[in-house]
Amino acid sequence: MRRAISVIVLNEHGVLSRISGLFAGRGYNIDSLTVAPVPDSNFSRLSIITSGDEKVLEQIVKQLHKLIPTYKVIENSKFIEKEMALVKIPLSENYAGLDAILKGYNGSVANTNENHIIVMVTDDTSRVDNFLMAIKKFNPVDIVRGGSVLMDF
Questions:
Q1: Where are the beta strands (DSSP E) in the chain?
Q2: Which one has a higher pLDDT value, 152 or 130?
Q3: EC number(s) in its UniProt entry (predicted)?
Q4: N or C, which end of the chain is more exposed by having fewer CB within 10 Å?
Q5: CA angle in degrees (0–180, nearest 5) for 145-48-88
């Protein structure tokens, strides 16, 4: 079962290590993890995507609540979830149809140089998956995916 968890913590040293240790200690992998400071505060937001047994994930969430630097744990909520991907394509490729694919997936050209063009897409995780399948016809030489970011509403 896929699970999205948003954790607000005090922005201090060692917090990320303790949180990732909760998962590792129970044998669970974090599929995606992004961390960023909350503007105008002493807090950071961790967006965690994981999957696994419901009972173990409940234990992890309970332990997250008990960590001293944890301010708030948001789970079982409706989240807006977005992910970004960067794709490097050689300039020697035929770009017919690239603009249509980028428009269809909220994408754009991020940068270019004499050898490559780098395109960027930001969308729902499943749509980023679909974009990456569609972009394969342009023979990308490198793909970087960012982790999911979450905001509850």
A1: 2-10, 30-37, 43-51, 70-74, 79-90, 107-112, 116-123, 142-145, 149-152
A2: 130
A3: 2.2.1.6
A4: C
A5: 5
pTM score, whole prediction:
0.82
pLDDT grade for 100, boundaries at 50, 70 and 90: very high
Q: In what order do the strands lie in the sheet containing 70-74?
A: 30-37, 43-51, 2-10, 70-74
Q: Which domain holds residue 116?
A: 80-152
Cβ neighbours, 10 Å, residue 51:
12
Q: How far apart are CA 7 and CA 150, in angstroms?
A: 10
Q: Are residues 99 and 144 in the same domain?
A: yes
Query: Cβ of 142: how many Cβ atoms within 10 Å?
Result: 10
Residues 142/115, Cβ–Cβ less than 8 Å: no
* For residue 138, pLDDT beyond 90: yes
